[in-house]
C-alpha cells in the first residue's frame, strides 16, 4: 500500500501550553487533526469554565487564519473543585471533560488531588451531569517503583472509582502496560483509553540503552517490550475502547536535556505518520481509521469528521528542532526518516 486515505482524525489528549509555545506547536496539530482534547495543566492550571473559555480564545487567536480546528476544552480537578463547577462545565458546549492528576504525578500536577477518594462527591456530580473523567493513572507513593505506578493505580484507585460510579464515562489516558489494556478490556463500554505514538513505537530500551535519551522520557514512562506489544495489539484490535491521544507535550530542548529533565515527548509535528508507522509494523494499516478517526468521537458523543486526509508512502526527514527565537523544541524522531507523509505538507 502506497497511499492511505482516511477520515480526518482527532487527537483526544494534547498539550499545547500557551504564549509563544502555543503559537509554535498549534499549527502542527491543526494541519492534521480536526479537533483535540486540550489538557488543562497550564501554570496556573485551568480550573474554571471561565478560565477554559479564555484559554480557548487564546488558542483560536493562535490558529492559522484558514484553519477551522476546534479545541475541546477540559478542566483540571483540584481539592477545591465544587459540584457547581461540574454543573457549569457540563452545561458549557466548549467543555468536554475533567482531568484528574494525582498531585505530583507529572508536569504541572502540583495542584492536583492527593487522594482521589476525597473528591468522590465531585465524581458523583460528573456521573450525574454526564461529563467524562480523564485520568492520569499513576500513584505517586515514593516507595512505588516508577515502572509499577500505573498498575498499582489501577489496583488501588481506579478499580474502586469504576465500581463506585458505574455510569461515569472514564478515559484512562496514555496507557502504557498490559495491565491497563486488560483492565480496560474487562470493564463496561463507558471505560476507554488513549494510546500515544511513543508507547506504540518504543520500549524503555529506546530511552536507556547506549546512553540516556531524554527525548524519550515521558510519563507514564516507557515500559518493557511485552507491554508495548500488548498496546499495539489493543490499538489494532478494532476495539472501540482504545483510541488516539498523542499526549504531545512540548518542552524546551534545554529543559529536557538537563540534569533534571522534564517529562513529555513532542509528537504533533508527525503524529498521524507516527501512528501509521506503528500500525504498518503490525500489518494493520486498515485499522488506523477506526482508532484515529471514529472511536474517540463516538466515545465523546461528537459527530465523526466529514473530510479526509491522505498519507503517502514517501520518506521525509524530521527536523532536528522546531521553533524560532526563544523557542526550541526537539521532536520525536528528530533527524530520523519517517516512511509516511501527510499529503499537502
Ligand atoms: C505531560 C506534560 O508535559 O504536560 N508530560 C508527559 O510526560 N506526558 C503531562 C502528562 O500528560 O503526564
Ligand atoms: Zn498528557
How does this structure look, described?
This protein is an alpha/beta fold and 345 residues long. The protein has a single domain (7-307), classed as TIM Barrel, CATH 3.20.20.140. Helices cover 34% and strands 16% of the residues. It has helices spanning 19-30, 49-62, 83-91, 120-129, 149-164, 178-186, 197-201, 205-208, 225-235, 253-256, 271-281, 288-299, and strands at residues 3-7, 11-14, 35-38, 70-76, 95-100, 133-135, 170-172, 191-195, 242-244, 308-317, 337-342. The strands form 2 sheets. The protein has an 8-stranded parallel sheet with strand order 2-3-4-5-6-7-8-9. Strands 1-10-11 form a 3-stranded antiparallel sheet. α3 (83-91) runs parallel beside α4 (120-129). The protein starts with a strand and ends with a strand. The model has no long low-confidence stretch (mean pLDDT 97). The site of zinc ion (ZN) has 5 residues, from loops.
Amino acid at each position: 500500500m502506497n497511499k492511505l486515505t482516511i477520515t480526518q482524525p482527532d487527537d483526544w489528549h494534547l498539550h499545547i501550553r500557551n504564549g509563544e509555545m502555543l503559537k509554535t506547536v498549534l499549527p502542527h496539530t491543526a494541519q492534521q487533526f480536526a479537533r483535540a482534547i486540550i489538557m488543562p495543566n497550564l501554570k496556573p492550571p485551568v480550573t474554571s469554565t471561565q478560565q477554559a473559555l479564555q484559554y480557548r480564545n487564546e488558542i483560536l487567536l493562535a490558529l492559522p487564519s484558514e484553519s477551522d480546528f476546534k479545541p475541546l476544552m477540559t478542566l483540571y480537578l483540584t481539592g477545591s473543585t465544587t459540584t457547581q463547577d461540574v454543573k457549569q462545565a457540563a452545561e458549557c458546549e466548549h467543555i468536554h471533560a475533567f482531568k484528574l492528576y494525582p498531585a505530583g504525578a507529572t508536569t504541572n500536577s502540583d495542584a492536583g488531588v492527593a487522594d482521589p477518594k476525597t473528591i468522590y462527591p465531585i465524581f458523583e456530580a460528573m456521573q450525574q451531569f454526564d461529563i467524562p473523567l480523564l485520568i492520569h493513572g499513576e500513584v505517586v507513593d515514593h516507595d512505588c517503583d516508577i515502572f509499577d505506578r500505573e498498575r498499582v493505580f489501577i489496583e488501588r484507585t481506579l478499580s474502586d472509582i469504576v465500581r463506585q460510579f458505574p455510569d461515569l464515562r472514564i478515559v484512562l489516558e496514555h496507557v502504557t502496560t498490559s495491565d491497563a489494556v486488560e483492565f480496560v478490556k474487562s470493564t463496561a463500554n463507558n471505560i476507554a483509553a488513549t494510546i500515544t505514538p511513543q508507547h506504540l513505537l518504543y520500549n524503555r530500551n529506546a530511552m536507556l540503552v547506549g546512553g540516556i535519551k531524554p527525548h524519550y522520557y515521558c510519563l507514564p514512562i516507557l515500559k518493557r517490550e511485552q507491554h508495548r506489544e500488548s498496546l499495539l495489539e489493543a490499538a489494532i484490535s478494532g476495539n472501540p475502547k482504545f483510541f488516539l491521544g498523542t499526549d504531545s507535550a512540548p518542552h524546551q530542548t534545554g529543559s529536557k536535556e538537563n540534569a533534571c529533565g522534564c517529562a513529555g515527548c513532542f509528537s504533533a509535528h508527525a503524529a498521524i505518520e507516527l501512528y501509521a508507522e506503528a500500525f504498518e509494523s503490525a500489518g494493520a494499516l486498515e485499522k488506523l481509521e477506526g482508532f484515529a478517526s471514529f472511536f474517540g468521537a463516538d466515545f465523546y458523543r461528537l459527530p465523526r469528521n466529514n473530510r479526509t486526509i491522505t498519507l503517502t508512502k514517501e520518506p521525509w526527514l524530521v527536523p532536528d528542532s522546531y521553533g524560532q527565537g526563544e523557542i526550541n523544541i526537539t521532536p520525536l524522531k528528530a533527524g530520523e526518516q519517517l516512511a509516511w507523509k501527510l499529503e499537502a505538507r
